[in-house]
Amino acid sequence: MFALHAAVGVAKAEDAASSKTAGPPKAEDAPATPAPRGRDWRGLYLGGLLGGSIPLDRSETLQPVGGLIGPFYDLHPPSQERGGIVFGGLAGYNFQAGHVVLGAETELNLLEGRRGPSGTFLAPPAYAALGVAYYSLARPYSDGNYFASFRGRVGYAIDNALLYATFGVATGGWRSASGLMLNNFAPGNLFTSGETASSRMKYVAGGGLEWGLDDHWSARVEYLFLDQSYGTQLFDNGASYDFVSKTRTQSHIFRLGLLYNLGADNLLPKADRKKEGAEGGGETQESKQTAWPNVARPTEGERTSTASDSARINPTTPQDTPQEERYSFHAQSTELAQGYPKLFALYSGQNSLPPSGQVRATNSTTGYFGMRLWEGGEAYVNPEIDQGYGIANTVGVAGYPSAEAYKVGHARPYLRLPRYFVRQTFGLGGEGETIDPGQNLLGGSVDANRLTFTIGKYSVADIFDDNRYAHDGRNGFINWSVIDMGAFDYPADAYGYTEGVSAEWKQNWWTVRTGAFQLSNVPNSEYIEPVLLRQYGVVGEIEARHELFFDQPGKVKLLAFADTGYMGKYDDAVYLGLMTSTTPDVSMNRIRRTKVGGGINIEQPYSKDLGFFLRASLLNGRYESYEFSDIQRSLSGGFVLKGDSWQRPRDAIGVAGVVNGLSGSQVRYFAAGGLGIMIGDGALNYNGEHILETYYRYSLGDGVHLTGDYQLIQNPAYNKDRGPANIFALRLHGEF
């Protein structure tokens, strides 16, 4: 991807140089972009797939642990794996240079025929001495019978044919919670398990031949080797005996595909617009295509909202309207290494920063596929490959120091689908505005006044609490309580995303936003609440735009939220711990409750290259932290200075400070040894958590930069008996 950036940058530089020497080009002199010889494979394509799968590993062994030793006690249930039908859909994007075709694809497929053993079977002879003659397995057939992937593709085109190879990261193939029973329901005979777990990378590799039927339609025949890795299940009876099941899930896949390519030109035909002020109001003139004003500068991060300056929106007029994009494909990759030296600590707990020091790294690679469905309607999907861990496994500090670290880490690359959503915009008039192409943004024009609805899976922070100076952990600050309101406990799974719906009404100088979203099924869980509105959060925000200071466009936002779900109360947990002489556990007294909070968000430019931000937030600290972090109140502020004054306009310096705090109920709980979702040192000598962050972003080229970041954290996890922590980070980021 970085090589692609370099190639694009060189092309832009050459174009710029030629324009300076040759003067303004005339329309008749503009050379047409040469199309590749043979069929043109460039652009976005969609397709359907149908084929069959052949499983490689049909056997399974349940090995006893904790008492029954030796292979004589292994259980070998007969396999019910068989070949089956594979069908699904995909989206992809191709680049082409001569005969060479490079691209990326993402897909979702049903993999029929995969099932774990289920039924009643004879036990091995060794069990006769234990009075066990048979055993039973109860397993669902359908869970995990799918695979999805995010793959790269390289091919060679000859006339209408494309021969290609492909490789990428896959997911799916897990088994859900299961049951094992020896003989009958006698005590100790029932063993239960959770879902299969795997620490190895799941991948897919193969190749195929694609044939162009005409300029848009093509057919393909394809082979894939799918490895969904070792799956491990632990069957536990709550006593001294366990069984462990290990299965390897591999398949040969043969399939056919029918695909439609939308073409290399992703712009809609120019639309006629009424000329303002024309006599009679009936005359029209063809709108001219304009250059995207900001497309060459670094983006402001992933966006599902178009009602923010961070979405790169610029004033335009009906006579100065760009053509609209039919589809888009963008990508990003971010590598972040972070560590700290030894720190002072009188004691440590389960959720503490290790005092010995630590270095960890994370990597993320994301694809952004977007398509215009109809007037005002757009659909997006963002497959992402992640790898790595945050320092201390993403605990130890309430204002956690890395926006690239999820609460769930893996040593091997793994595939997720953090976003898939539909956006619908209704124009309400006013002067036109231009939306520049970007991640989750289709370039085009919109009314200045508009209604925007978004439904699907995305992050609440994509819509709410935006700030151009502190909200994008891949281009700017990286501390959680700098880029978001620290006390904004918004609905999300452990990765930061959830399912929901939001609405935005933008009018003149103000915008109103609201949304309803699912909480996770239990606090800080990887899984979203499956029952609609059983556990949910509601968010509202009012934004006012002004030019009261420095003749620059500033913003003030007021935000409020309410989470309704099954959550514990800190003081009840402390009281129960005292009564039972145990460490308090807030998860032991969860009932349905509602927690509320809110905050203010200010962004104010001083000049075109210098701006300030300020956030303050507060929530009800009596109930446990549900999703974000263990912060009851937070105040943050800072500035960002771009490098115009030293002739490096794409560079930037940022400095920010944060003060985070807890409620009295939280202080008592953590002092008694309780654990939160982010902190828990086993004891607490309370003081506010004070954070200073500074960074320098050095541009390496168009869309590629290297950032050095330093954070000083005084009283990590609010504990005067630990720290300070000096945390250093280096981030390499590229996008196109």
Structure write-up:
GO terms for molecular function: porin activity. Residues 14-38, 272-329 are annotated as: Disordered. InterPro entries: Carb-sel_porin_OprB (IPR007049), OMP-like (IPR051692), OMP/PagP_B-barrel (IPR011250), OprB_sf (IPR038673). Residues 304-321 have a biased composition (Polar residues). Belongs to the Omp25/RopB family. Belongs to the OprB family. The protein is mainly beta. The protein has two domains: 43-261, Porin, CATH 2.40.160; 288-735, Porin, CATH 2.40.160. Helix content is 6%, strand content 48%. The protein has four helices and 34 strands. It has helices at 2-22, 480-483, 570-580, 664-671; strands at residues 43-55, 61-65, 84-97, 100-111, 119-122, 134-138, 146-158, 161-172, 178-182, 190-193, 203-212, 217-236, 242-261, 272-274, 284-286, 313-315, 327-340, 358-374, 377-388, 410-427, 432-435, 444-447, 450-458, 498-507, 510-518, 536-546, 554-567, 591-607, 610-619, 633-643, 648-661, 689-701, 704-714, 725-735. The strands form five sheets. Strands 17-18-19-20-23-24-25-26-27-28-29-30-31-32-33-34 form a 16-stranded antiparallel beta barrel. An eight-stranded antiparallel β-barrel has the order 1-3-4-7-8-11-12-13. It has a four-stranded antiparallel β-sheet with strand order 5-6-9-10, with no helix packed on it. Helix 3 (570-580) packs parallel to helix 4. The radius of gyration is 28 Å and the shape is globular. The relative contact order is 0.10. Residues 1-33, 272-300 and 307-319 have low confidence and may be disordered.
